[in-house]
């Protein structure tokens, strides 16, 4: 898909995707890592904490979907996003420019392991969001495509790296929002607490109402008091092929479509 407004920003082979939100579009490479429903759910989960003057940071932004979705939901005026892969950071920057949001969303190419990371300011952020690599290094098959491998495995960004960066960059009482695999919940809680990030809310995401959660949405607070709320689970489908009412409401449609499931 190509439209006239995208031509100055779109490179050969890239797809233009309609986010179905506030008239926003994003560029995607069909042969590289493309965002999925996890990012949509994370943006929805974090949005109530993001207001017009909130300073928000996305760690590992990929092609920039979380900043675009957060802007579409909140019209916040300050989002930084950091990405280690130059090609991804370039695509994210072009998507931001295509949507005329250069004054709101700032893409930084860099490594969060550099203290405190690229042009980011220590202790400056109210909210950090992240959809980090899910698989520990050495577990599961690693994709031979390096871009896909970095997006899915903890090769250049581990849980420890994310937690350390969030601890350094969040204000006291600032909030971290994350989506991850449910099987790693114990790892997440342990690593975050070790970095003064106290888990406050957890919500499981299950494929069907009678199935265990395979993903989790999580909120932690820097220097927060112990005590977490386990929220009611979110079901993707109410029955095979039929999205749940909550997923329909999140998308503002009858669930994900071919344009926004990825």
UniProtKB/TrEMBL annotation:
* Cross-referenced CDD domains: AdoMet_MTases
Q: Which InterPro entries does the annotation name?
A: DNA_methylase_N6_adenine_CS, SAM-dependent_MTases_sf, Small_mtfrase_dom, tRNA_Adenine-N(6)_MTase
**Which stretches make up the Methyltransferase small domain?**
52-181
GO MF annotations, alphabetized:
N-methyltransferase activity; nucleic acid binding; S-adenosylmethionine-dependent methyltransferase activity
Q: What is this protein called?
A: tRNA1(Val) (Adenine(37)-N6)-methyltransferase
Question: What SUPFAM superfamilies has UniProt attached to this entry?
Answer: S-adenosyl-L-methionine-dependent methyltransferases (SSF53335)
- One GO-annotated biological process of the protein: methylation
């Amino acid at each position: 898909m190509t439209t006239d407004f995208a031509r100055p920003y779109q490179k050969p082979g890239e797809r233009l995707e309609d986010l179905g939100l506030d008239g926003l579009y994003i560029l995607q490479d069909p042969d590289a890592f493309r965002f999925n429903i996890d990012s949509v759910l994370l943006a929805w989960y974090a949005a109530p904490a993001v207001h017009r003057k909130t300073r928000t940071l996305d760690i590992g932004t990929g092609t920039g979907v979380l900043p675009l979705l957060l802007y579409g939901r909140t019209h916040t005026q300050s989002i930084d996003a950091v990405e280690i892969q130059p090609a991804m950071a370039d695509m994210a920057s072009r998507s931001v420019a295509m949507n005329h949001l250069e004054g709101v969303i700032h893409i930084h190419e860099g490594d969060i392991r550099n203290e405190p990371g690229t042009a980011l300011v220590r202790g400056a952020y109210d909210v950090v969001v992240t959809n980090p690599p899910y698989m520990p290094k050495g577990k599961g098959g690693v994709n031979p495509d390096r871009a896909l491998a970095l997006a899915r495995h903890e090769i250049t960004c581990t849980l420890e790296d994310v937690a350390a960066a969030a601890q350094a960059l969040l204000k006291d009482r600032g909030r971290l929002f994350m989506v991850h695999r449910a099987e790693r919940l114990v790892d997440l809680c342990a690593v975050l607490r070790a970095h003064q990030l106290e888990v406050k809310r957890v919500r499981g995401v299950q494929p069907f109402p009678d199935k265990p959660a395979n993903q989790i949405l999580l909120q932690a607070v820097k220097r927060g008091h112990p005590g977490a709320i386990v929220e009611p689970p979110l079901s993707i489908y109410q029955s095979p092929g039929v999205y749940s009412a909550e997923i329909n409401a999140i998308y503002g449609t009858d669930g994900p479509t071919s344009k926004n499931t990825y």
